[in-house]
Amino acid sequence: VLFRSVSQSRYTSRSHKVRDYYLYEIETDNVTTAPTNLYDITLTNSRGYDLLGGAGANRTSNSPTMTFPMINGGNGFPTVDDGTYTLNITGNSVASATGVIKLRFVK
Predict the structure, then answer these.
(1) CA 6 to CA 21: how far, in whole Å?
(2) What was the pLDDT predicted at 7?
(3) Bridge partner list, 50
(4) Among the four residues 57, 58, 80, 106, which has the most C-beta atoms within 10 Å?
(5) What tens digit of pLDDT does each residue of 5-15 get?
(6) Are 95 and 8 in contact (CB under 8 A)?
(7) What contacts 6, CB < 8 A, 6 or more positions away?
(8) 72: CB partners within 8 A, 6+ apart
(9) Which residues contact 15 (CB under 8 A, 6 or more apart)?
(10) How many C-alpha atoms does 6 have within 13 Å on its Cβ side?
(11) Are 100 and 73 spatial neighbours (Cβ–Cβ below 8 Å)?
């Protein structure tokens, strides 16, 4: 997912079928103008549950970062089912910020 103007919550998204896959990791990287340091990312399902389990909090804006989802405070790999998921980016105040968010799934 390429995000732009995150302070305005606009980003380019893609739809993929990932039923019965596991969310393995999330990687973030800035393209040109970095977002505010320590911005947050959540990936929520229709019930508001964050599949990252808080692991997307406090992303650094000065270098690429990679992390694994958390379940009950420890590393885990949540199963993805049918439905709509929303990528949320908060804590940014740089209107021209751009970056890439990679979500890796495994079966």
Answers:
(1) 28
(2) 47
(3) 44
(4) 80
(5) 444 455 555 55
(6) yes
(7) 35, 39, 89, 92, 94, 97, 99
(8) 53
(9) none
(10) 27
(11) no
